[in-house]
């Protein structure tokens, strides 16, 4: 959470606007294109961070944080874009790698931000804004619009080779709503983890800020390793849905064990293993959701799922904070873990759409194209795993 010279933190304003603006941005991505929304999100986030860096009062900072939350759709837009341009054979691999990005940020961001803060508390936020604007410039130069989305909108340049490209918006499957409920409980679990971990470590192990930071780095490294090396193997072994369910159950059960097991190192080790479960779920969510979409409704469906998750992330810290007043070690963790377990059980009940037969036989690694979706003409030059 951002440290402020005004003695307060306006993170709630960011969470509120990000939750309620996500569905709007998803609909705009279906209407105006993935590239347009991604560029707008990066530009908006960059300008908001510059505004925060220059804020002179708490209320100015509060307003800029709320404005920043409006554009909190970069990750969601990236998932939608990947779902468009990746073939079904490589989509799980690329979604898993995308889920590693927050772990990289958690690993290197605090150290970089702490070093930059020596030059002034506003400097890390200023650098963050400039990096967002730089990313927007790179996307503007190098990132084309999704050809699959262009086809779905009947764009002349995209439909020249496919005159039967669909232009009608498909209805939203009923299973998506069940996935949203599962995402809500998963968001509660995530919100509890983010908001209560430092409090839990202080209450149980009397960790100071240095040891808490060290523990967060270890957890981030476990998350990163899982995204890169473990998730693909588990997905291939048990399937997408079972991988996500297994991750939810593993995270919930190990989090409870973390709260009751004695000793510092056993607690840290079990915490890192619980993060492995959370990462298995997070790295698989995007691919599962993509199976329920087509290019005409993909942005809307992904955004609805993000809205449900964000609402859970709002509820989780509030409830956990009240529980922590009574018992900061067990009750918040038990609440978050229970929601994680419920999320996995709900997901288990969701019938998955039937995917391409080729996906069940073999999965590609490290290959994609801007054609998206089609498996035809992709037999040569592949690396199989």
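Sequence proposed for the structure above (385 residues):
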């Amino acid at each position: 959470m951002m440290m402020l010279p005004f003695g307060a933190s306006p993170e709630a304003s960011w969470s509120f606007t990000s939750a309620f603006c996500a569905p709007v941005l998803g609909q705009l991505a279906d209407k105006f294109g993935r590239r347009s929304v991604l560029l707008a999100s990066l530009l908006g986030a960059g300008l908001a961070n510059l505004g925060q860096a220059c804020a002179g009062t708490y209320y100015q900072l509060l307003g800029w944080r709320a404005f920043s939350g409006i554009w909190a759709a970069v990750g969601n837009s990236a998932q939608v874009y990947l779902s468009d341009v990746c073939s079904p054979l490589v989509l799980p691999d690329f979604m898993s790698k995308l889920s590693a990005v927050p772990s990289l940020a958690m690993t290197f961001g605090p150290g970089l931000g702490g070093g930059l803060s020596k030059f002034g508390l506003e400097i890390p936020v200023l650098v963050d804004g400039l990096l967002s604007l730089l990313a927007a410039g790179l996307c503007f130069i190098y990132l084309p619009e999704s050809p699959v989305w262009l086809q779905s909108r009947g764009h002349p340049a995209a439909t020249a080779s496919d005159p039967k490209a669909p232009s009608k918006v498909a209805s939203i499957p009923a299973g998506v709503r069940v996935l949203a409920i599962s995402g809500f409980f998963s968001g509660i679990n995530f919100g509890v983890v983010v908001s209560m971990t430092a409090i839990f470590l202080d209450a149980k192990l009397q960790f100071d800020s240095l040891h808490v930071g060290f523990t967060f780095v270890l957890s981030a490294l476990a998350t990163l390793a899982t995204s890169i090396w473990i998730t693909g193997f588990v997905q291939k072994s048990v399937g997408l849905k079972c991988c996500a369910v297994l991750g939810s159950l593993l995270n919930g059960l190990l989090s409870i064990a973390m709260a009751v097991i004695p000793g510092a190192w056993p607690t840290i080790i079990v915490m890192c293993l619980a993060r492995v479960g959370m990462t298995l779920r997070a790295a698989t969510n995007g691919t599962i959701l993509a199976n329920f979409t087509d290019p005409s409704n993909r942005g809307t469906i992904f955004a609805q799922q993000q809205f449900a998750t964000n609402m859970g992330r709002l509820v989780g810290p509030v409830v956990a904070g009240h529980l922590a007043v009574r018992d900061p070690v067990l009750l918040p963790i038990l609440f978050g873990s229970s929601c994680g377990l419920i999320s996995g059980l709900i997901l288990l009940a969701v019938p998955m759409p039937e995917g391409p037969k080729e996906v069940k036989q073999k999965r590609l690694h490290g290959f994609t194209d801007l054609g998206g979706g089609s498996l035809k003409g992709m037999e040569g030059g592949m690396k199989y795993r």
